[in-house]
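--- STAGE predict ---
source: upstream dedup step, 1 unique chain passed
mode: sequence only
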Amino acid sequence: MQTALRTALPETELASRVDFAPHARVVREGRQDERQDERQDERQVQTGGLPLSIRGLRKSFGDNEVLRGIDLHIPAGQFVAIVGKSGCGKSTLLRLIAGLENSDAGSINFGEAAKAEDIRVMFQEPRLLPWARVLSNVEVGLGRDRASTDAHVRAEKALAEVGLADKRDQWPSVLSGGQKQRVALARALVSRPRVLALDEPLGALDALTRISMQRLLERVWRDQGFTAILVTHDVAEAVALADRVLVIEEGRIAQDVVVNAGRPRARGSVELAGLEGSILSHLLSADDRT
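--- STAGE serialize ---
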């Protein structure tokens, strides 16, 4: 039995929900799972990623058909990167997976044990609340569990995982760009998600900070085992982090490249450079075909 992700509330609520699929609900065989009053002492933390199956996914904005029948399966715990030229549909695909948009046709299915809160999103902008200290910003990622007695402990642990335990009482305004993104990552990880959707989260960082964040992201993914889906314009970043690289072209998957390099990966290696060159060559040749 599969569990499908559907959406219900308007996107205007994003500002208060910041980093997680803000209005997702689980539909199982056409019926909503309404167990919203589950007691805290009955809550069980599930670990490991969720599988993802997409069939015939289509999405248009007016007359512009952005996605044209996407079929995709991602095994539980896999790290997948999505690349492509601007406007190819990669961010739209990620938003559909995260429950931030509704599709026009097709299905997005997770395993039967999926819950709406299993999916978290990390954006390019940190989207921290300027009136809240760092620890409180991380606690936002707990959603309803923010009122639980262990909220502070869980937030502190998430901050420690990203190396910012000593910044818990700071205001966001005094943090560097890289530190703000690490707080955003801690906020996304504090609830132990089973799927983490990453929408170019490192795109605005300088080169050295970006490499440091890439290593951090890979480490927490390996430690926690969630399914990771990364949208990026940086092909080198994609091959450095992912198990698979999907190339989106004109709303379809044009390439599905398996990255067999061992971990930790040697950046600048001949193997990774060859994969990067092959993907870039395909992307550049697309201009010649149009």
